[in-house]
Amino acid sequence: MQYNCDSTGQDSMIILIFFVFGLIVGSFLNVVVYRLNVAESFVTGRSHCTHCKTNIAWYDNIPVISFILLKFRCRNCKEKISWQYPLVEIFTGLLFALIGYKFFDATVVATWVSAIYYLGIVSFLLVIFVYDFLYMEIPGLALWPAMGYVIVFNLFFDWVGLKGGIGGQGGVGILDGLVYAGTLGAVVAFAFFFAMVAISKEKWMGMGDAYLVILLGLILGWPNILLALMLAFSLGAIFGVVLILAKQKKMSSQIPFAPFLVLGTLITMLWYDQIVDWYMRLFV
Ligand SMILES: [Zn+2]
Fold first, then answer.
1. How many A from CA of 149 to the centre of ligand 1?
2. What is the rounded CA–CA span in Å between residue 57 and residue 11?
């Protein structure tokens, strides 16, 4: 997908706003992951300590800063707060800042829509990343709404002809459209993963991963999804070898794969053109 506008000299104030907004959203995503697992509503109900259940006051709930001030412990029960919380916040902040930098130009209305779209994508993907990392399972309650979200936006982008992000010349032809590219990417990726799941009887890959790549195919479209899958397998292989060398895992042990698929997708979303350019230049 090419919404890339790579505006020259993006206002650092705007990037800072995206970063801080990302910290706040990241704090919410932590709550979403936790409540998806214990099946609590993440819309209502105050944040509370997962150990002693005491409600967390607003001044103890400020992204990153509160963790440092509280020395990573609950104010009430002194139980250690997981590193997951500040890490997810900072990572979300950085990704939001990158989207602000690459896809947003305050003077171009169309980029407001695509930036909002990308912020949503990043949020869905991070929930899936963290959830699979913690529980070795793809949360359907995040996956299916995410697919709906991407399809609605792809239809909208095709309808208004926003493919270039700046666009506005009206609808695009079906074969040039994001809906077409997304469907093709999703079908091919799913077929490939489904084959791996079936052949290995879920030993190499879970059915959850096959459902996940439908979403990733819809997001990236064809052929970009190929780069994301290549990156995911490469990162996964490197990580696996490092763990084996560090004697943390045996050859046979399970490593959640969704985090690598999500990382491959985020990298492809942000730097597809640059990576393809660099790769092509290797052979010239
Ligand atoms: Zn507590």
1. 35
2. 34
Q: How far does residue 46's CA lie from ligand 1's centre (Å)?
A: 14
User: What's the gap in Å between 71 CA and the centre of ligand 1?
Assistant: 13
Q: Which uninterrupted H or E stretch holds 214? A: helix 207-220
Q: How far is the CA of 47 from the centre of ligand 1 (A)?
A: 11
Closest residue by Cα to residue 104 from 225, 16, 224, 219: 16
At residue 12, what is the residue type?
S
In tens digits, the chain (284 residues) has pLDDT values of: 444 554 445 688 999 999 999 999 999 999 899 888 887 666 666 788 888 888 888 888 888 888 888 888 999 898 888 889 999 999 999 999 999 999 998 888 888 999 999 999 999 999 999 999 999 999 999 999 999 999 999 999 888 875 544 444 556 666 778 899 999 999 999 999 999 999 988 877 889 999 999 999 999 999 999 999 999 999 999 998 888 888 766 655 677 899 999 999 999 999 999 999 998 888 86
From CA 179, how far away is CA 219, in angstroms rounded?
Answer: 10
Whole-number Å distance, alpha carbon 122 to ligand 1 midpoint, is: 30
Burial pattern 19-28, b for ≥16 Cβ within 10 A else e, equals: bebbbebbbb
Distance CA 33, CA 88 (A): 11
